[in-house]
Amino acid sequence: MTMNAAGGRRRPPTIHDVAREAGVSRGTVSRVLNGGHYVSPAAQEAVNAAIRRTGYVVNRHARSLITGRSDSIGFLLTEPQERFFEDPNFNVLLRGCTQALAAHDIPLLLMLAGTEDERRRITRYITAGHVDGVLLVSSHSGDPVAERLREAGVPLVACGKPIGLASKVSYVAADDRDGARDMVRHLLSLGRRRVGTVTGPLDTPGGVERLAGYGEVLAEAGLEFDERLVVSGDYSRASGEAGAEHLLARAPDVDAVFVASDLMAQGVLTALHRAGRRVPEDVAVGGFDDSPAAVAARPELTTIRQPWDRISSEMVRVLLAQIGGEDPAAVILPTELVKREST
Amino acid sequence: MTMNAAGGRRRPPTIHDVAREAGVSRGTVSRVLNGGHYVSPAAQEAVNAAIRRTGYVVNRHARSLITGRSDSIGFLLTEPQERFFEDPNFNVLLRGCTQALAAHDIPLLLMLAGTEDERRRITRYITAGHVDGVLLVSSHSGDPVAERLREAGVPLVACGKPIGLASKVSYVAADDRDGARDMVRHLLSLGRRRVGTVTGPLDTPGGVERLAGYGEVLAEAGLEFDERLVVSGDYSRASGEAGAEHLLARAPDVDAVFVASDLMAQGVLTALHRAGRRVPEDVAVGGFDDSPAAVAARPELTTIRQPWDRISSEMVRVLLAQIGGEDPAAVILPTELVKREST
DNA sequence: CGATCAGTTGGGAACGTGCACACACAGCAA
DNA sequence: TTGCTGTGTGTGCACGTTCCCAACTGATCG
Predict the structure, then answer these.
(1) In chain A, which residues have their Cβ closer than 8 Å to the Cβ of B127?
(2) pLDDT score, position A147
(3) Residue A341: what are its φ and ψ, rounded to 5°?
(4) Nearest-by-CA chain A residue for B63
(5) Which ranges of B275-340 would DSSP assign to H, the alpha helix?
(6) Which domains occur in chain A, in start order?
(7) Counting beta carbons within 10 angstroms of the beta carbon of residue A261, is it exposed (0 to 12), middle (13 to 18) or buried (19 or more)?
(8) Which residues are CB-contacts of B200 (< 8 A; sequence separation ≥ 6)?
(9) What region holds the HTH lacI-type domain (chains A, B) (predicted)?
(10) Among A61, A127, A135, the residue to mutate for chain B (most B Cβ within 10 A)
């Protein structure tokens, strides 16, 4: 009467069952599971056979309870959710991190915390020790979540240098300033002299650094810095469109635009098209990221390639090292100019 | 000497600490935590105050160990990963499910299983009981993961009717056939008579049903079914582009195309543009999904809106009900024609 | 020959929680 | 009084694992 009905979910085998099946003790099975040190070849073989026969899988909850580790990593996004889904960069980054962690057999927990309410819930969830570390893919200055996690001592790696935080936080970033310099030099090399820019949000490192690179190259070329050529955006397609309209209104003679993200560049293209400007004949457009948006755009975007695959694998490497007890570290990776149709 | 260094992670408070702080027993604290039945107002207040003071958060590993529940849900995608990141539909669905589950304070575990190797790992992970249920967002026929999970008795809700599976599996789907009918009728109402189609993969319910709706309406309008007007795709942008080229080669007089996804429709637009056909003047193009890709396209796509927000909330509702012991259920939701520039 | 040591094994304790149970107490009916 | 019901409270046990310590082997060393 108390037996499980056929087809129902029967009690999964425990380490105890395996030990009995193999004729050894729990301790020996546990040792086999965790590296196999101090176990005789005979016992090792018997245990492995028993595991195969019983179909045993370790109960991670029980293990986590005693080790204090969860063997999982969180992928935390504190942006409004639209940003995540609109911006292909996040997708690429997520895929890269998933793959890098798969090599360690560690599942990735995707956490979206767009509202303050969700941020509180997520913070509680994380500080409860349900993930061993966090990959933070948004880094506005003054982000309360990052600060709270840092205070709680949660291992943390940011994508892009966090601005407002104390120095003791790891991050991995592309060389934004250098990439911006490459692009603006490229635009100048095409003979353009009225080079405008649509910046990223200026409370993010990417926004600040790319603008700085733009300014540097113009200065080095002996061109005056004309603030009518500078408008700011928030990385969204819509802000690129609005930015380009501003630009055209304030500086109608603009002949090139360096846009701080591909997605915004799509918006810029839309606005230019509507204004009757041809790309690249009348206005050359350079993007940033080399995201899928770059090849989806018409014309296809010349852009600065961020090495997303390396960024994600480095983030994972640094985070795992930090969980293992190492000190925080910062990694800067080089970018690359990719020429397409828009310049 | 054994004290924690300042700034380090100190031992988190347990239910024991809270009980001592509040002057009650563990059991009372546990009762407050789980609903507060059979607890006096005085004790309730004392416990809540103690929780606030100690900063206690429940240890989910310990709870899961005894309850056998993980209080988390898996979002499982067995497609090759590129599909997930290219296709905006998945993003919208993911967001909807995340939000719906947030209302229940349940975190969502995103699992990508593109390769057979990963599928094995993920299956093991799931059947080990580390999620309470699975939202399955891919449903090719013969998907081995779905079958394995069903056999293991894991609560499961698919997005779209699974073709090859036994009937006892829940699913939520839009009314694909009816949506396709609406679109084709719309194209005919514009006076088009050579209406082609680029189908979805024909081992998925969406692919099959949308094609069926297309055929039905043509037949009802007294138009002959011309197989030169039918090409199949796989929902990717690239397959839409290739499909349109096929279509133009085999039926140059085509004056409208019903494309089974917005993403493929983007590819169709690209191919038509390259072939010098104007949209919608020469060829009207209708998509399916009303995903972000529809408004990103140039011209913006007329399409069939899938109610993604309702689909995701229904998937969550049905899954939670099933975890609670209810029987599997199927839900079909209506679609809506959205007119834009491409027709 | 006793002592030491590296390798190997078994079993007790603990991790933090939920649950079943025992129990206390008040109110009320027999 | 005795019994009974419903509410509120404390305690032992179990969940499945890892960690730690003790014990047992041979082999080597002083």
Answers:
(1) 57
(2) 83
(3) -95, -15
(4) A61
(5) 292-296, 308-323
(6) 15-58 (1.10.260.40), 73-175+308-333 (3.40.50.2300), 176-305 (3.40.50.2300)
(7) buried
(8) B206, B207, B210, B211, B232, B233, B234, B235, B260, B261, B264
(9) 13-67
(10) A61
Q: What angle do CA B292, A277, A239 make, to 5 degrees?
A: 40
Contact residues, chain B, for A88 at CB < 8 Å: 85
Return the closest-CA partner of residue B210 out of B274, B264, B251. B264
Whose tokens are 């960024």? That residue is A311
Helix (H, G, I), strand (E, B) or coil at B212: helix
Residue A19, nucleotide of least CA–C1' distance: C10
CA B291 – CA B57 distance, rounded (Å): 39
Residue type, B253: D
Chain C nucleotides reached by a protein CB under 7 Å: 7-12, 14-21
pTM comes to 0.79
Q: Tens digits of per-residue pLDDT, B242-254?
A: 999 999 999 999 9
Distance in angstroms: CA A123, C1' C11: 40
Choose the closest CB to A61 out of B57, B61, B85.
B61
The tokens 């926004």 sit on which residue?
A207
Among the partner residues A7, A61, A91, nearest to B65 by beta-carbon distance = A61
pLDDT digits (tens, 9 = 90+) for A227-270: 999 999 999 889 999 999 999 999 999 999 999 999 999 999 99
Q: Which residue has the tokens 């991670």?
A: A60
Question: Distances from the Cα of A225 to the Cαs of A176, A187, A197, A232, in angstroms?
Answer: 20, 16, 11, 15
Distance in angstroms (rounded) separating the CA atoms of residues B120 and A105: 12
Is the backbone peptide bond immediately before A280 cis, with ω within 30 degrees of 0? yes
b/e map of A17-46 (b: 16 or more CB within 10 Å)? Answer: bbbbbbebeeebbbbbeeeeeebeeebbeb
